[in-house]
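Dear colleague,

Thank you for sharing your sequence with our group. We've completed the structure prediction you requested, and as agreed, I am returning the results in plain text so they can be pasted directly into your records. Please verify that the sequence below matches your submission; if there's any discrepancy, let me know and we will rerun it promptly.
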Amino acid sequence: MQIEEESLRNSAFMDLTIKEMHTIEAIGLVDLPTSNEVAKKLSVTAGTLSVSIQNLVKKGYVERLNQPNDRRVVRLNLTKKGRLVYRLHHKFHTDMVKDTLTGLEREEAQVLIKGLRNLNQFLDNVKNRMNEG
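Please find the predicted structure tokens below.
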């Protein structure tokens, strides 16, 4: 994450923190999630997310969309600037995976992928236990 944050600091998006970048990533390009949906995805409180969203709105990466039929529901949408940084961040991750697999035989890549899935499952289990306690 330190390398990721340093990469952001040396880009045109130096005003973003890595946590804000992950919030942008959680909002995504397709759906118009609610704040509660994004907070759940990030495993943060609604209050914590609210502060992040407020900063991202001020910086021009996110916009809040009120629902005309229910003003209590607020959807989140990436602005043009937000979509651009989302795509660049996604490319960063794609390039990282490609470079990691470079030079590996098919069987070696499959073992690495299986190990990373196991690690991800372990971390999800730890996170779930932390959220329960």
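Summary note from our side: The two ends are 26 Å apart (CA to CA).

Kind regards,
the structure core
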